[in-house]
Amino acid sequence: MHERRISVQRGNPPLGVRDGLTASRVRVPENHAGISAFDFVWHLVRTQRHRHPEDNEAAVAQRFADGLVVIGPKYRYARPEEALQAGEDVWFYRTPAPEQKAPFACKIIHEDEDIVVVDKPPFMATMPRGMHITETVTVQMRRALNNGELTPAHRLDRNTAGVLLMTKRKELRGRYQDLFAKRGVEKTYEALAPIGDTKPGTWWENRIEKVAGEVQGHIVAGSVNARTFVQAVEPLDTEQQAIAEAMHGKLPALARYVLQPYTGKTHQLRLHMWHAGHAIVGDPAYPKVIPHGSESFDQPMHLLASILRFEDPISGAERVFHSSRNILRLT
């Protein structure tokens, strides 16, 4: 059988988005040079940390039969028996493991020809990663809008709810992503936490470091890389306190904190609140990491990306988007 070459438009991958999911691309390392294409893909599948129980050798063989394994950089459909060279890229689709369905859905705040702005619920990751693949904003919205190019311009933690901006075409991604990378977006958050000594007008400025693979980040000595402004601190009334305690049990007197981050470090607001003595209600990582599998969908983390404001990089118009979610209920 001759190699089957694939004509791919420049800048596009050889396998497109399928059912909301992009294909995996894996480079053949030196120590796997000469391995057959089948054995290499089977190795990648069987060593997945989160693997579908039916993704077996027969399922891998079917990928080859269906033309769903591609070798590059000179793109060709892979034959199971062909030997791979070090440095070649192999493209294929992974089969996601079964996931627990997210209890809430995304709401569309705004949609035009360039962007979609969604109101993200808690317990839904922004992008596919680790054990959260299909139950993510990216995959769910791609499927809902039948648009494989739909991509987040920024990220919210899985447990954070609120306003999330997505681009509808790949040629726009860089323009909107640059807004966030260059801090051209004004972001306002709300958090529910115990009342303490923090007053409106407070600045939290320090250095945050987070090691990949570790759940918690840390505030450490060194030059400042994380800045947060406390815009407001509003104590809850008796009725609001009762709503929070109906979810989480007895709690100290709580307040609604309005926060504006001027940097975008991972877990920045969660760390700043905890470090100031106001751990966010329902936070599964601060001060104590809740073991995987023990979270309750009835007890969300009360952190909400409530407002997103920026100058549109395409039209130049001011854009302001508000979450419709309530910091108490988050539904």
From TrEMBL:
<dbReference type="GO" id="GO:0003723">
    <property type="term" value="F:RNA binding"/>
</dbReference>
<dbReference type="GO" id="GO:0140098">
    <property type="term" value="F:catalytic activity, acting on RNA"/>
</dbReference>
<feature type="domain" description="Pseudouridine synthase RsuA/RluA-like">
    <location>
        <begin position="114"/>
        <end position="273"/>
    </location>
</feature>
<dbReference type="GO" id="GO:0009982">
    <property type="term" value="F:pseudouridine synthase activity"/>
</dbReference>
<dbReference type="InterPro" id="IPR006224">
    <property type="entry name" value="PsdUridine_synth_RluA-like_CS"/>
</dbReference>
<dbReference type="InterPro" id="IPR050188">
    <property type="entry name" value="RluA_PseudoU_synthase"/>
</dbReference>
<dbReference type="GO" id="GO:0000455">
    <property type="term" value="P:enzyme-directed rRNA pseudouridine synthesis"/>
</dbReference>
<dbReference type="Pfam" id="PF00849">
    <property type="entry name" value="PseudoU_synth_2"/>
</dbReference>
<keyword id="KW-0413">Isomerase</keyword>
<dbReference type="InterPro" id="IPR006145">
    <property type="entry name" value="PsdUridine_synth_RsuA/RluA"/>
</dbReference>
<dbReference type="InterPro" id="IPR020103">
    <property type="entry name" value="PsdUridine_synth_cat_dom_sf"/>
</dbReference>
<protein>
    <recommendedName>
        <fullName>RNA pseudouridylate synthase</fullName>
    </recommendedName>
</protein>
